[in-house]
Design goal:
The chain has about 120 residues and is mainly alpha-helical. Helices cover about 55% and strands about 0% of the residues. It has a domain of about 60 residues. The two termini are about 30 Å apart.
Length: about 120
């Protein structure tokens, strides 16, 4: 019995990985909307103002790993790229459209993975 990932289960794996990335709202539309400050929850000792252009998400290696996993799975062959690349590209483009909100490493990797998927789609 083969344990290899077949093309029928591939979309489910990709959707699960993207759902895991989105667990903290990373890919949600609410990421681009500023949160309202609650004066009652402000820490008076050592509270810092958040600058308007500040990053909202720090570096999380699990997000980079899951994006890489999705990219590798989509790049296996032409059929898998055609069937599963669209949601992965949309998630990567979300990071690239708001680079100031994300860590520089995540933005750089998202650009690399986007170009890798683009290359795969042209070569295959």
């Amino acid at each position: 019995m083969s344990r290899a990932l077949d093309d029928a289960r591939l979309p489910h794996v990709i959707d699960s990985a993207l759902a895991e990335i989105n667990r903290d709202g990373l890919l949600a539309e609410s990421v681009t909307k500023p949160e309202e400050d609650d004066p009652a929850s402000t820490d008076l000792i050592g509270s810092a103002e958040v600058m308007p252009g500040a990053r909202r998400y720090g570096y999380d290696p699990s997000v980079v790993y899951l994006f890489e996993l999705c990219t590798v799975l989509c790049s296996r062959n032409a059929a898998s790229a055609a069937a599963t690349a669209r949601p992965v590209i949309n998630a990567l483009m979300h990071v690239l459209r708001g680079p100031s909100q994300f860590d520089g490493i995540l933005v750089a990797r998202a650009a690399y993975y986007t170009f890798s998927l683009l290359h795969t789609s042209y070569v295959s």
